[in-house]
Amino acid sequence: MSKLKRSLAAVIVATMLVSGVAACGSSEKAEESKTSVVASESTSAGSTTAGVDLSEKMNISVALWGIDEALANAGNDQFLKEMYQKLNITLTPRQITWDDYTQKAQIWSASGDMPDVMAIDAVGTTYYRNWIDQGVVKALPEDLSKYPTLNTYMSKPDIQALKQPDGKIYTIPRGLYDSLDYCAHDRIVLYRWDLAQKAGITKEPANFQEFNTMLKAIVDKDPEGKKISGLTANNIKQISGFFWLFSNPAATSDGSGSDFKWIKDDGKYVPAVFTTKLTLPSLQNMRTMYEEKMIDRDIANMKGTQSYDKFVSGTSAALLLVGYGNVNNQVNDRWKKLHPETPMLDAIKKADYFPAVDGTAYQCTFKTYWSESYFSNEVEDKKMDRIMMLYDYMLQPDTKEFYRYGVKDVDYTKAGDKITKITSQADLDKKQPSSANLQALVEFDNAYLYDPNNSTIDPAISKAAIADLEHARQVAKLPDYEVKLTDISTPAKNKFSVQDYDFMFKIMAGKEPVEKMWEDVLKEYEAKGLSKMIEEVNGKAKEMGLN
Q1: Cα torsion at 244, 235, 438, 140 (round to 10°)?
Q2: pTM as predicted
Q3: Helix (H, G, I), strand (E, B) or coil at 497
Q4: How far apart are CA 173 and CA 113, in angstroms?
Q5: Distance, CA of 93 to CA of 70 (rounded, Å)
Q6: How far apart are the first and last CA of the chain?
Q7: Intrachain domains 27-177+369-444 and 187-365+480-543 with the same fold
Q8: Backbone conformation region of residue 200, classed left if phi is above 0, alpha if psi is from -120 to 50, else beta
Q9: Please, which residues bridge with residue 375 across strands?
Q10: What is the distance between the alpha carbons of residues 517 and 507, in angstroms, rounded to a whole number?
Q11: DSSP code of 360?
Q12: Integer Cα distance of 211 and 232 in angstroms
């Protein structure tokens, strides 16, 4: 498995979500056999299973992106062999792809053919609620103390907010980060500082006005004569994560339509995106930027990797993208090919955390997770217990060290916090080809990008990412909102979706006054039940004791 593929497994994957239709895979029945295995302490994982009777072997069917490839060489995979032996399990793949996973999940759940473990981003959707109401998915044990690492993992506020009225949680979210601080890098804007200097800009922008001025200078002067455009983006759904920071930071959305945040406005909770006072300045800023060509006219039409190519080749002045993993894999790799004589970070800069109209600098905020694991309600309690042990195992620090570096004193040595690799990454991928995929079974391990021991990323990019994250913690603020209301269920809210990127783009490129087009948006969402939803959610908030 290549370095690029391994790194991409640990970065935000929301930009890859497209839908398609594919045939449903066949059902695999678990074959359980008796062995004499009793769990003992392992040199590569924690002690969750110490002293536990694991004599009954469990076969666990798993639907996870790339799982079929990951399990193809189980007999020669040191990571899998250790896991299988320690937990006395085997994993059976149920194939899903980025094109068909949503359709397969719905088909399997409707037909009673759901695998034991299934990955999908379902929170906030109708089928998520139906699965719970109809008993399709199994609740987690209410007491997770038997699985201490998993128990700690599940204690994050945005995960606890998934607790249903019956007091149970029906999913294990697939973690991106340990805290919301890392969301600062979920939307990154890079700009061509080399071209800005050629256009006469002598100071890196410290606020939105200076940023706009810089973009306009690059576009107007077109220093390389390439008919350069302004800001482009890898995915139009991601634009809210930057543009709302101008005046309405709690409105930032991941593009799913279901993650809109609630804030207090005139004494009641409302979706932040519908607070006109906060929303209009951001929309007006977008309109101004678009009219003055500071935004690429083709921003909504970027396909695949076109935006990276435009930016690196010098036909776009700035680029909105997700994460330093993509800075490394998509931008830096392209830069080295086109500009081998110039280090990328000498020519390209990351936009700072600009003060909003209220004078405070904010960072975009989403969740500590993306996508979730669901468990078939057909899973017996004894198998659910083993699955929880598996999830606890995957979260343990020693296991993370194993799938990152291999076997201690064979593939790497450790002195204090310093890791020294003995086995090259290429050879490690051959020894344990499953680990790059299976590390995403429970979490995406994005925080590894910020680990000084990470050798899968360019050292200069890693250093810049670590420094900028600390900078964000010092200068940028998380917006205020009531996290407990994001995923609650009410009849009107369950049917409600906010595609903010859609109306943002229409208003940005529109001809009518911004205020008029915004009023039309409000009327459209009012017809979809906005007021009714607000009424229901405030009723729930009162029941929950939220002031």
Answers
A1: 50
A2: 0.82
A3: coil
A4: 22
A5: 9
A6: 52
A7: yes
A8: left
A9: 117
A10: 6
A11: -
A12: 14
